Amino acid sequence: MSLQIAETTVKGKWVRVPALSYKGNSIVAKGSWVRLAQILDEEWLDTELEDPEVCAKLLKSQRRTGLRADILTFAQKLPLTIPKYNYHTEWDSIAAIPTSSFRQWWAGLPRESRKNVRRSQKRGVEVFVRPLDDHLIHGIMDASNESPVRQGMAYRHFGKTFEQVKKDHSSFLDHSDYICAYVGEELIGLIWLIYSGKIGSILQILTKPSHRDKRPANALIAKAVELCEAKGLLYLTYGMFNYGNKKRNSLREFKERNGFIEVLVPRFYIPLTPWGKFCMKARLHRGLIGILPHGAIMASTRVRSMCYALWCSNGSTIERLNRIRHMRWSTLTYNCSVPDEQAKNQSVSMTYPIE
To answer: Residue of 62, 308, 333, 338 with fewest CB within 10 Å of its CB?
Structure first.
């Protein structure tokens, strides 16, 4: 196991971090007052950490001259949900849709969600699976630059250059798909879907706020479920169902309306230092979102949303951001055409039962 440098994204920006090479994977340490070591891009890999006891011993032995970490953590992979190890275990709350039967998922949706999928079709939304190329990257830029604030916080991908967006989306190309929603020639939404083993995981859902009435997100999720069933996958996942003690929120409600359920997956923790052992006993390794009560988390979220709302009410700020965006675009050639027949043939036909 040797020290190296790995690239990862932090709040939408690429940074170089120290990493340890272990059995073909890079292990990085995150956090400041308590350092958690884990496999880089763990959630997008086919396999979980091999020989965790050996890994923990190696991390301990080189701590002074290599990667500083207080706790080693790793999660078990779906579909296995029974803990395989006797280490300290907590539970990751995964938002998942069983994809063995599209019809079963469709029948279990709320009536309004089924109407939203049909509404998108009636309003001219077409969904295709497309490869990542320059046309698609320009479309992603266009969708990202519609608003600097989303879900009550600054949107980290607003105003990025062509090269930045291309780099963001150049990972996992050998085991991913882009599911794209179009109205005519315009890309109004997409899902970046990553395949790992028998699981399809949504890395990103991006939609244009100006086309919210066409319900592109509902159409995209329906296509993703259909695609996962066609590939014989067991689950479609979309991040966490519950984030720490943050239980009820708009993102969870969106997932519930689209048929996602909570699936609990074991996550293991191995203390590497006395400080790490203390933090585990005091539950400090969970971070603020895992320590503070739900009411305090939601209160801070509301305050943050109010601050961004006041920021957005400053017209000069928005004009300045848009001016920067257009200056960047002035050097680019935008030509996002309608998907050709080859791209259309990559899509899986969407046929929904009539109620």
So the answer is: 333
Burial (CB count within 10 angstroms: exposed 0-12, middle 13-18, buried 19+), residue 232: exposed
CA–CA separation, 235 vs 243, rounded Å? 20
CATH architecture of 100-233+314-345: 3-Layer(aba) Sandwich (3.40)
Give the residue among 38, 39, 3 at the shortest CA–CA distance from 20: 3
Q: Residue 105 in contact with residue 259, Cβ under 8 Å?
A: yes
Cα–Cα dist 312/131, whole Å = 35
Q: DSSP character for 242?
A: S
**Closest to 192 (Cα-Cα) out of 26, 182, 181:** 181
Q: What angle do CA 113, 97, 47 make, to 5 degrees?
A: 150
pTM score > 0.70 for this model? Answer: yes
pLDDT in tens, 125-180: 999 999 999 999 999 999 999 888 777 677 888 889 999 999 999 888 889 999 99
Name the phi and psi angles at 128, rounded to 5: -135, 155
Spatial distance between the Cα atoms of 194 and 269, rounded to a whole number of angstroms: 26
Confidence of residue 298 (pLDDT cuts 50, 70, 90): low
Structure tokens at 331: 């050097």
**C-alpha 151: how far from its chain's center?**
15
Closest to 195 in 3D by CA, of 45, 79, 78: 45
* Strand partners for 293: none
Half-sphere exposure at residue 314, Cβ-oriented, CA atoms within 13 angstroms? 10
For the chain, give every domain's residue range: 3-95+263-295, 100-233+314-345
Going from the C-alpha of 276 to that of each of 38, 51, 63, 154, the distances in angstroms are: 14, 20, 13, 33
Tokens 């399809």 map to which residue?
A: 200
CB under 8 Å to 62, separation ≥6 — which residues? Answer: 1, 3, 20
As to burial, measured by CB atoms within 10 angstroms (0-12 exposed, 13-18 middle, 19+ buried), residue 10 is exposed
Please state the separation of Cα 277 from the chain's center in Å.
30
